[in-house]
Design a protein that fits this description.
Rossmann fold; 3-stranded antiparallel β-sheet; single chain; 10-stranded mixed β-sheet; disordered N terminus; globular
């Protein structure tokens, strides 16, 4: 019997195996360095000798974008080919923060970029400090939206985030005369290499005006909205990179512009300022994150903002859907999921109804069935007084057709659902109605969300429990399976892997390198909790992070 013995690796073979990854890494560093230098010259139009740190940062982003936009195109082509079901995340806030280091980390290219810049005599952290903070949010709600987009991309879920392309995000703080003052935060005053404009997807949004009734030859009566003005929505796309570049999602933000940039007749007649009045008014819509709504004008602007980005987003969703389904809406709810992040995007509900009824020719019942199967709602507050309400008279002025649709939804809900459950109980009807009666009648946006949505969730286990039992107990009695929980977590890719590389290296050693995809793997470090060596290393990481 002849046996074969496995030959032992020679020293030369062993060294070759170890040397290969090192050689590949050095080659990748050289390649990234070459790309940065090339973009510095051909994209930014400057030379290494006179380039500012801002120019170096722009060149680094351009080098990373070579990979990012290629993966984005691949992701979109795959989803389009497979006609995949997609999540559409509507949020008035996206607190994305700085993206360069986060993107490089998710592409697993941070070390490569760091060493490439080091060879050029630059510190990557100093270079990336040139990136303005994309502060398009005001706290937890906006950061939750950003973390969800990161997770959706990492988990390869087809998704698009929709929001507003604020010219000025969260205010910048300064201290003057011993007092804090707020100043505009113009995060993209000179443009941003992290985003790309998509003029082929511009949407026109109607606003104001009046509604009249028209009778067709067959005797059917329909409502026709005659808007007073049209605002143009210009989309800007920001790629959201999944971990290891597994997929790249899109955050699409809408910038408001006038459909008429300039009135030549008024200008030539001497009205130099008046000639741009329409342009200025339209651009105000996406000017500031959360304008002060203590005034009448502020209230109107806030509602206009919400409607503007929802209307643009829904038209964009329908455009994408109809590329494959050609205005056959029988599959819409199977392909489209719309997540409302708090009540700010609630106006998307009557807007979808309006588009389906007025522009696509569906019946009210068919449109309502689609809406109930497409929308879901995330609640962020338990305080009844903090739930968003809009005066009816503002709706009548800005969105008269939507108010009609809301009235009809409310009528069917109260008479077909509430009356059946609690016959003759007007107190329950008053509490659950979308319209709040009183000296100033108001539209309760949270009630509209709950009535329409297939699922309603809080952002923590206890919060979701209180939403169901304390905030909306009657709705939960009507639809006990509608309420669920989705815990608001954070992305470990940004808040550990990118922010704390020293601690991340310890987890890499003990838990393996897949823990950013499965945090349960981090539990493996527990058995080293009493190990003196690991305790010392952990404390050294904490100390080094605090050393300036």
């Amino acid at each position: 019997m002849v046996t074969k013995s496995t030959p032992k690796k020679t020293t030369t073979q062993s060294n070759a195996v170890k040397a290969a990854p090192v050689a590949d890494y050095k080659q990748n560093v050289a390649k990234f360095k070459e790309s940065v230098l090339n973009h510095l010259r051909t994209t930014i139009g400057t030379s290494p000798a006179k380039a500012s740190k801002l120019a170096w940062w722009q060149a680094v982003v351009a080098a990373a974008n070579e990979d990012i936009f290629g993966r984005l195109t691949d992701t979109q082509e795959t989803h389009a080919k497979n006609d995949t079901r997609a999540v559409h995340y509507l949020s008035a806030e996206f607190l994305m923060g700085r993206l360069t280091i986060n993107n490089l980390t998710n592409l697993e290219k941070f070390d490569i970029a760091r060493d490439a810049l080091k060879e050029l005599g630059l510190d990557i952290n100093e270079v990336c400090e040139e990136e303005p903070d994309m502060a398009l949010g005001n706290g937890g709600l906006g950061r939750l939206a950003a973390c969800f987009m990161d997770s959706l991309a990492t988990c390869k879920y087809p998704c698009v985030g929709y929001g507003i392309h604020y010219e000025n995000g969260l205010f910048r703080q300064e201290i003057r005369g011993g007092k804090q003052v707020e100043r505009p935060d113009s995060w993209r005053e000179y443009g941003s290499p992290l985003e790309v404009c998509r003029p082929e997807s511009i949407q026109n949004v109607p606003l104001g005006g009046y509604v009249d009734k028209q009778t067709a030859p067959d005797g059917s009566v329909s409502s026709v909205w005659h808007p007073a003005t049209i605002i143009k929505g210009v989309p800007w796309d920001i790629p959201v990179v999944g971990y290891r570049g597994s997929s790249v999602a899109i955050l699409r933000l809408w910038e408001s512009r006038s459909t008429e940039q300039f009135n030549w007749d008024v200008f030539n007649a001497g009205g130099y300022v008046d000639a741009q009045a329409e342009k200025s008014l339209a651009e105000t819509v996406s000017k500031v994150l959360y304008p002060n709504d203590s005034t009448e004008a502020g209230k109107e602007l806030r509602l206009t903002q919400q409607y503007f980005f929802c209307a643009c987003s829904l038209r964009d969703i329908l455009r994408r859907y109809n590329r494959t389904h050609h205005h056959d809406y029988s599959e819409f709810a199977k392909k489209i999921v719309i997540q409302l992040n708090d009540t700010h995007p609630t106006i998307a509900i009557p807007e979808l109804m309006r588009l389906l009824i007025d522009e696509e020719g569906l019946s009210f019942d068919a449109a309502w069935d689609i809406a109930q199967k497409s929308f879901n709602y995330t609640n962020h507050t338990l305080l009844p007084e903090a739930l968003e309400k809009w005066p009816v008279y503002i709706f009548e002025k800005l969105l008269p057709r939507h108010l009609e649709i809301i009235y009809e939804i409310n009528y069917h809900f109260l008479n077909d659902v509430v009356e059946k459950k609690w016959p003759g109980n007007n107190d329950i009807k008053a509490k659950l109605s979308i319209i709040e009666e009183g000296e100033c009648r108001k539209v309760r946006m949270a009630n509209l969300c709950v009535i329409t949505s297939g699922k309603v969730n809080g952002v923590a286990k206890i919060h979701s429990k209180l939403v169901k039992e304390d905030l909306f107990p009657e709705y939960a009695e009507l639809w006990p399976n509608k309420f669920c929980n989705v815990t608001n977590g954070v992305t470990p890719r940004r808040w550990l892997l990118a922010c704390n590389p020293g601690l991340a290296n310890i987890y890499n050693e003990v838990s393996g390198k897949d823990w950013p995809l499965n945090l349960d793997e981090c539990e493996k470090l527990k058995k080293f909790a009493d190990n003196k060596d690991y305790q010392d290393r952990f404390m050294k990481v904490k100390h080094d992070n605090k050393v300036v």
